Each structure stands twice: as C-alpha cells, then as structure tokens.
C-alpha cells in the first residue's frame, strides 16, 4: 500500500484528489495539509511514501511555499518522496522544485490515470516529469550556455517583484556585489541591456510567470 499526504491550500482540490486516489486499491490518502508548516508537521515522524505537493501555498508566511516544504520534508530522516502537482511551469518553479529534492513534477491538468501511475513511480523513487516539464528541462540541457542557473532565475524573479540590488541581496541573503555579478551574466545570456528587458525576455521565454 502506498501512503500519500496531499498538500494543497484549496480544500476543493484536496477533496478532488482524495476522490481520484480513493478509487485505487494500492494508494491510501492518510492525511491532508493546507500549508507548508502543517505538511512538515505531519511528515515528521510519519511513515509516508509520497507527498503530493502544491507549489504555491498561500499562507501567512509568503516564503513558506511548496518548495520550502519539499526541502524541509526531504531533510527528515527516511523522508517520503515528493511529487509536485501544480499549475505553474516556469523554469524558475521547476528548477527550484528539483533543487529542493522533488522526485517529480506534474501539472494539474494531468489525466487521473497518469497521476496515479506517477504516484506509483514516485513511491519507488523513480523520476516523474510531465511532457511539458520534460521538454523545458531538455531545452535547458540542449543550450547550457544560454540557460540561466537556479540562482540567476531567482534574481530574475526578484527583479520582476521589484527592488534595488541591495534589496534583492537582502532577500536572497547574498551580497550586493554577487547580485551585480549575476546580473551581468543574465544580461549576456538573454542578450539584453536593461533590467526591464530582462523581465520582458524572461516572461517571453517562460522563465518566470
């Protein structure tokens, strides 16, 4: 039997997933969580096989999203495998989730039979990627010289949020000089010469939302 924890901040989504998975004989939803903190609390000390994790969790702490929860859960002793199930497919979301230790990444329009098969694969530790996600990762591998690193993607995302180099440095807990250095590489890789054009190019390429 595969024991699953569903993490999503929308009760209707959790109920729908529970209904879908309840029709299987080998998968049991043993718990639900609506926030990152709740997910980590449930996973701590529990014998879970798979955590089905939403990426954007709108709780009191904006930094405590699905990536935060994934990283915290994967840091536990004998952790369950985490399968991301989200509506977002930008490069920054995918790279952050993979870096946090997620074993798979699917979109919420995935057919139920594919989702069930993915949970079974995730339970064994097998990497599971939806077709659109796999295509984006392959494009990064095919063009390593122009693909932004995970940190560069984070800085682009921060640029889109707004703020000076000093403010971005404080948010990412790095030096202002490091932010400037990354920006030079980002300008070069995207072939632009301004912060505004960085954001436009990143959105056009689907690197950020």
Automatic annotation (TrEMBL):
Q: Mind telling me which Pfam families this protein's record contains? A: GerE (PF00196), Response_reg (PF00072)
Keyword annotations from UniProtKB, A to Z:
DNA-binding, Phosphoprotein, Transcription, Transcription regulation
- Does the record's keyword annotation contain Zinc? no
Kindly give the SMART domains that the UniProt entry links to this protein. HTH_LUXR, REC
The source's domain of life comes to Bacteria
Residues annotated as carrying 4-aspartylphosphate in the record are 54
GO terms for molecular function, please? DNA binding
Query: Domain Response regulatory: where?
Result: 3-123
Q: Domain HTH luxR-type, which positions? A: 141-206
Q: Name one GO biological process term.
A: regulation of DNA-templated transcription
Name this protein carries in UniProt: LuxR family transcriptional regulator
Taxonomic source organism:
Gordonia phthalatica
